[in-house]
Design a protein that fits this description.
- There is one protein chain.
- By secondary structure, this protein is an alpha+beta fold.
- Helices cover 47% and strands 14% of the residues.
- Strands 1, 2, 5, 6 and 9 form a five-stranded antiparallel β-sheet that branches. A four-stranded mixed β-sheet has the order 3-17-12-13, with no helix packed on it.
- β10 and β11 form a beta hairpin.
- The N terminus is likely disordered.
Amino acid sequence: GLFTSFPHSDCHLSSSKQDWLPWSLLLLSLMCDTGAFYVPGVAPINFHQNDPVEIKAVKLTSSRTQLPYEYYSLPFCQPSKITYKAENLGEVLRGDRIVNTPFQVLMNSEKKCEVLCSQSNKPVTLTVEQSRLVAERISEDYYVHLIADNLPVATRLELYSNRDGDDKKKEKDVQFEHGYRLGFTDVNKIYLHNHLSFILYYHREDLEEDQEHTYRVVRFEVIPQSIRLEDLKTDEKSSCTLPEGTNSSPQEIDPTKENQLYFTYSVHWEESDIKWASRWDTYLTMSDVQIHWFSIINSVVVVFFLSGILSMIIIRTLRKDIANYNKEDDIEDTMEESGWKLVHGDVFRPPQYPMILSSLLGSGIQLFCMILIVIFVAMLGMLSPSSRGALMTTACFLFMFMGVFGGFSAGRLYRTLKGHRWKKGAFCTATLYPGVVFGICFVLNCFIWGKHSSGAVPFPTMVALLCMWFGISLPLVYLGYYFGFRKQPYDNPVRTNQIPRQIPEQRWYMNRFVGILMAGILPFGAMFIELFFIFSAIWENQFYYLFGFLFLVFIILVVSCSQISIVMVYFQLCAELHHEISEKVGGHPVGHGRLALSVSALFSPLLMPQLDIVEFIPSLLYFGYTALMVLSFWLLTGTIGFYAAYMFVRKIYAAVKID
């Protein structure tokens, strides 16, 4: 219950007639479902009988092409004046272009059949060019997304789960699909859904006796139909009559010639028991919550397994080692020293490129803080899907503001690694990772622009993002770096020798790539189920809202990454691989490659056939965005692993007496 009670609805908090609570009680009120406020932007709208309910279009999407288009990129009927809604950063980046439509819907008022944009009853004529475009979009499996009172439209799918083989016991399994299909293909012919039956559900609000009833929209469904021009009868008042029964043919779109058709719609209202606060539940019904619990139990087992190895190693072996090293006997001189004490003079040798290392780790800290805060806030239900684009906007701004922490940790580390050019280091921290991300996104954006998709980030937004980067993030990173560089560097418990030690001959399993794979598999195993859900939500335009589970999985990921890097470092120290360590404590790929490899290797082939991606640009987008996610994961897990290993190495060398 805990994990699903918060994020479900626009906000579970119902408005009671309390006085304004002071800000100190704000969080408390969120936790206890008592608060006297709604999440910004999602207060309920009350309608009276026959009030207009505006229906807006969001975009057209397809999981096959991954390219969203705006609604009027196809020749739909247009209102006399087209107005676009002002959008937040997240909506623009997602490709939403919310625009008004000519559908006239009145609260609790039925419409049998109405014709759209027909001047004196003439059907709409699509030119050859338009027909070809519509046919192409239908064959690419495009869906149309509309909203009424901020609720997205859904198509009801009734699946019969016939378990007993007995017809009487057929159970209807109702699922909802986001949006409605633009059309369908049948035996190489293409048909367009030109009649929409809207079914809207309202909840009647209880009021005092003398007041008029008010209604709230709680569900928005559509049944799309394809009806041939000849089967529709229309009159002068632009109303129409639908054909009786099943004897009508669908409206075919022939891409080689002009097509004539009517766009029609009908409206039906039904009363519903669903409260306004839980109206999003239908859209967020999970197919299977058990699998998430299964994944978490699976992850916890992995973590316990690691902890077991760790405690065995650390408590038994280390204590024995330290006791042996610290025995002040004469035997010590005659005994040949071996193991991790031998490399004490080489472990803390600064790596070859201290600036790049500290910059990457600074960005890793920045990412870590952002992800932690975003998941936590989303878990409290403040970033529910009803406030469109909020998650992305929050993530962008948080990443900018977390520059202070990134800069501070990078500056302190750079000082520890004997770096001197702090200004250059700060610039490197502020631009290295964001620069790579911006570069990849810019290249992908150019391809999307070429396709005239609404998924392309408009030029003004790009300029705004650049201003945020150089106006907010860069100065904050400099500020943090300045204070971090001035702070006392981390003190290493042992001095570094002038001349590096010889490295003994190694076994095959101490090879770097074997180490990377070993270190990557366990944390990956701990979270791959949750990753699968997130990836499906991103690529298939679904809502992802199980942030309670995600928060747990994130904690498990942090723990397992720290543990595995400590284990790997211990093995390498015992094998006297000090160059690996000084770089790994200097952040060598052993720590970093962990999730990156496994995520990309496993997911790219897994999802490609599922998504049906075949063309060049969709494949490019798929691999480009996956590469970005992998890069971010690499930074995040590498940073966690680095700090865990560094603290471990400092602890164990502080415990032994070294002459």
